[in-house]
Write a structure and sequence with these properties.
This protein is mainly α. The protein contains three helices and no strands. It has two domains: 34 residues, no CATH class; 41 residues. The chain is elongated.
Length: 85
């Protein structure tokens, strides 16, 4: 192909030997998949992701506790004020 020619989109890409030996491709072939693709991916910084997940878990637990306890607190305050329930 010369410099001025555009590649034909119907032409298949040449095989990539590095991609063939990648861990994902090896696992896909071991599972009998027809294509070297496994949903998901490799996280470049798993420790950062785990720290973020733990932080979000703590926030979620605090939100649950606050919502549950606020029902009790509001009920108690309503009873003290004499609000008919």
């Amino acid at each position: 192909m010369t410099e001025n020619q555009q590649p034909d989109p119907d032409d298949p890409l040449p095989p990539d030997p590095d991609a063939y030996d990648s861990p994902r491709a090896v696992q896909a072939r071991a599972r009998g998949l027809s294509a070297p693709y496994i949903a998901g991916g490799t996280d470049p910084e798993p420790d950062v992701g785990r720290r973020e997940e733990r932080r979000y878990l703590r926030i979620l637990l605090v939100m649950i506790v606050v919502i549950v306890l606020s029902g009790f607190v509001l009920g108690y305050v309503a009873q003290l004020v004499g609000f008919p329930l």
